[in-house]
Amino acid sequence: WLVLGIESSCDDTGAAVVRGDGTVLGEVLASQAGVHEGWGGVVPKLAQAAHAAAIDRTVDEALRISGVSPSDLSAVAVTVGPGLSLCLEVGVKKAVALAREHQLLLVRAHHMECHAMVTWLPTQPPPRVDLPVGGATAAAPKPAACEAPQAAAATPSSSAALDQKALAISQGIPTASTTLSPDGVPPFPFLTLLVSGGHNMLVLSSGLGRHSILGSTLDDSIGEAFDKTARLLGLQKVPGGPELEKLARDGDEHRHSLPAPLSRTRDEGLRASCDFSFSGLKSAVRMLIDTHLPAEKLAELNEEQKHAELAHIAASFQRVAVEHLAMRTARAIEWARAIEPDLSCVVVAGGVAANLRVRSELARVASDAGLAMVCPPLRLCTDNGVMVAWTGMQRLRLGLGERPLRLDAEADVVALCVEVRPRWPIGPRDRRSTTQQQ
Ligand code: ATP
Ligand code: FE
Question: Where does the record place a coiled coil (predicted)?
């Protein structure tokens, strides 16, 4: 079997072809990094234009490097939600057009389930082909730069040597293909911590399409908190999360004490929950910068001193944010075990699972509970076409492929029947979590 996966839910246009045994034949990504810089977030109209400009090239190139023609495919899988509707529509339109033209099955994919399932890809993917974003977006006018302390200058210590160190650490962390599931069959039930730009959830995963939410964020996701805090620290690149992680490697994570999120309700008996909150932590960083690093003080520091001060704040923020994830995940393991005593492992997935501090801390939490923690390969944590193709493959095996055509006999027209679902919960909230919320 061969499945083409198409992803366009946010700011990455991705396409990949995956074979039934999990081999990735080819993967292409047109990232919009740069397009939204200076806007303070992803601008839906700009993102839509960039997807529209990139979608044909991305899909054509993925098929070309895979050595596959559309008629060889068994199905096209496409993200139909959750995400930005303007963006989702671009991918869905392309998938439907391909399926119609080549008589292929179409598989609707849930973006967050794809993030989780790519953990079980049984093979290492080959290098990805990156396409530059093109078309109108490149020339889009930018707003004035947002207010922030001077960008932390990269010091020699934060670049090559540390990237090597990060790589070495990440290679020591197992992925599913090397441990629990060499054949790619997910060992349901497991607990999934989904940490990304738009979501922050603890989910009990009992099967494909069978997930129940134990906890989610009351405000921002951790990805959003990383991105906003990165901006406060003057990091200009978008997304800011990976930049903040790099900066934090140069800092002392115990230099500043920041309030633990939801600490007032932390050990609160009946009100104990697996929910998250990150907006207070972000505000605390803003206050810390205002008091500890006001503009007059920054002006007195040389580049190296400035870098060190910002790195201490980044590291302290990251420590508290990751401890919050860890504490809630430890609690969720207990909850999940009360429902499914044979819990197999803890999956950590989504863009923020690329963060090495997140990986190592969650590995510790899982191991304290006698469980393994598994993550997707680093490169597949953020949005990509492989996760859609691989999840689509598994849905196809369950008979969930469909013809995207509806024959309306009376009107004698063929109507499209694939709708995008910008809001699409991955599953119901578990009863226990809703009880705790009241
Ligand atoms: P969602 O998946 O919820 O719809 P999204 O698709 O925009 O949102 P992802 O692509 O899964 O999000 O993840 C992007 C997020 O991950 C961004 O917020 C980014 O800053 C964050 N991120 C990526 N790498 C790292 C890292 N190394 N450390 C911290 N954050 C990171
Ligand atoms: Fe995502």
Answer: none
Q: Which of 349, 332, 326 is CA-nearest to residue 120?
A: 349
Which residues have a Cβ under 8 Å from the Cβ of 301 and sit 6 or more positions away?
309
Q: Return the ligand number nearest the Cα of 354.
A: 1
Residue closest to 48 by CA, chosen among 93, 3, 16, 17? 93
Average pLDDT over residues 50-58: 97
Q: Strands, E, within 261-364: which ranges?
A: 345-349
Helices (H), 33-177: 44-66, 85-102, 111-117, 160-171
pTM: 0.90
Mean pLDDT of the chain: 87
Which residues line the pocket of ligand 1, CB cutoff 6 A?
9-10, 83, 111, 115, 196-199, 223, 226-227, 239-242, 245, 350-352, 354-355, 382-383
Closest CA to 232 of 306, 154, 148: 148
In this prediction, residue 173 has a pLDDT band, given cuts at 50, 70 and 90, of: low
* ipTM passes above 0.90: yes
- Ligand nearest to C-alpha 87: 1
The CB density around residue 342, as the number of other CB atoms within 10 Å, is 9
Q: Ligand 1 pocket test: which of 110, 382, 391 has the largest number of ligand atoms within 8 Å of its C-beta?
A: 382
